[in-house]
Amino acid sequence: MTNFPVANIRADFPILAEKIRNKPLVYLDNAASCQKPNAVIDSISNLYRHDYANIHRGVHTLSVRSTDKFEAAREKVRGFINAISSKEIIFVRGTTEAINLIAQTYGKANIKAGDEIIITAMEHHSNIVPWQMLCEQTGAVLKVAPMNMQGELIYDAFEALLNDKTRLVAVAHMSNALGTINPVQKIIAAAHAKAIPVMLDGAQAIPHLPIDVQELDCDFYVFSGHKLYGPSGIGVMYGKQALLEAMPPYQGGGDMIKTVTFEKSTYAGLPYKFEAGTPSIADVVGLGAAIDYLNNIGMAAIAGYENELLVYATGQALQIKGLKIIGTATDKGAILSFVLDRIHPHDIGTMLDSLGVAIRAGHHCAMPVMDFYQVPATARASFAMYNTKEEIDVFISGIKGLIEVFG
What we know:
This protein is 40% helix and 16% strand. It is an alpha/beta fold. Helix 2 runs antiparallel to helix 10.
């Protein structure tokens, strides 16, 4: 994609001009969190400088301005994932809170002893632990659909797990540790054929792929703002309106109520029933700005460019003797996880940092994945729309130098 405007995009991200240990920053830790463009930074600053007040509760001008910007951001999220109604867009702190919300509301109301919940072997801890907690609370059983050595879901084994006891399927749209993009439409269709709802963990997929929840027909879709070039501490839970209306509130407090007496309270309608207390107003506005920024570039164009980066980096990595890529799915996002003979991933990360290259080293909150591959950790380079092939060359050169140092 020679016409992809990567130079213009890079100029919008001030942190990319930073020097790390007197070297230009090469930021390849995007699967953990993406950097922020000026549009997002300025939107937050402008709100605090000119418009900030608490929302929904005031009739004065600043409250109205803040409320309008907050709700405009909700509508931007709705459009970005093509939800039917903004009532289906619930603001939370991030993907983790969204999954816990679903587990403790939908889960507690619909799952009982002996029921089953299906996840996959490639899940982030955030899509494992909340379901384990729910199973401990209810007596339900957590089932794990296996994957192969390429890091791909063994679909037939997944489908075989679906039965009359299955009450929910909760799967990663894209694996944070492997880059695998799961066949989610196929998964959803199979589950729905047995009237089983599906939640997609979209934390990794949302910055890389166009998302249409109506086309997917998922029942829940959850993601975090900080991976979408927006602020940290804000995320989204999408749910089909009928499901959300039937679910009890997650937390009690201000703004999620209709009436309160000492004897009984009644609850507000959607989406406010799930948004107790003063929200992270500026971060919601910042998320809206991030979505505007991405829409201006185009998610399809971003996906195409990032795939070019992944193909290039993979080709370079495969030429390095002693390097093993962990996660080689045919359908894969812009993540390159790897190990080196006799060199611990933490040493890889530390040595690359001395060259200004930021990668992630560890278990990536996916310990069962590491156990599957019988490695303590991996080094992970993850690419975003502002990365370049020249940066990949610096990264690859650093790995080769590291191997020489370690002999």
